[in-house]
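Protocol step 4 of 6: structure prediction from sequence.
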Amino acid sequence: MRTSRSFQTLCLLTTVMAQSAREHPQLLLGPVFLAPNMLQPSESFSSTTSQLSSQLKTILASGSSPFGNFTPDASSVSISIVGASRESPLFNFHSTSSFLNLTAGSTTNVTGNSVFRIGSISKLFTVYAFLLNGGLAHWDRPITDFVPELRKEVKSHRNSSEVDLVKWEEVTLGSLASSMSGIGRDCKMPFVD
């Protein structure tokens, strides 16, 4: 059986590409870049992490941030930045609230080894992706701009008590994303057609 030259070339090319893919895997979204491995001794990285640590301490102590106010010292925080080429973290920041619920088996001191319930941590990825792609342009817009059905909900509950009524036109995308909208975590509101 005689094969054409173009078929032989195609087979050779396919074999070379398969071998290359095994040796140099590529991500679906783009090329693989080498991980930075000299961050810690970098003066700019050290300066940035020092500023970050200082700003986080100020924000947690004052209860005031560019994204809204909250009760000071009410949040426990643990942030670690790790690198693929290092065993120790590049950056550590840990803050323990004095309002920890110790009766629930909580730790008395938040560290890099503290275990947290997953809770809403996965929502951060959505918020970060939104901020990276959309910036702060929509942050202060009411949620009713994005979910217009909530406007009907507000109109249908005009005579409801203030406790039962969420003022959706006052709830912004930023307040929802930062869990500062005042809406309880188990808020269930029936929609009326």
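Step 5 (inspection) to follow. The longest strand covers residues 77-81.
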